[in-house]
Amino acid sequence: MKLEIESQETGKLALLVKGEDHTLLNVLKENAWKEGAKQAAYMIKHPYMSDPKIIIRAKDPKKVLINAAQLAIDDSKEFGIVFSREVKKKK
Prior knowledge:
Layout: E1 2-9, E2 12-18, H1 22-34, E3 39-43, E4 53-57, H2 61-89
């Protein structure tokens, strides 16, 4: 994965996320809304010929995106714990 800031201005951040697809960007978008974004969206113009772009509008879009990523990490860890517990019950 490579990140490239496409544009940055007060209250808005547009970031190219090279090497990723809908899976990660959708999670980040949804979590950005949970973290208080005024707008959170992503686009992939063409799945084979363009890099995905996520756009965040917020008072502090960088902070919102960092918190959204951390929320994804936390959710993944929680899923791993719960899943492991359920697998052990079924043995």
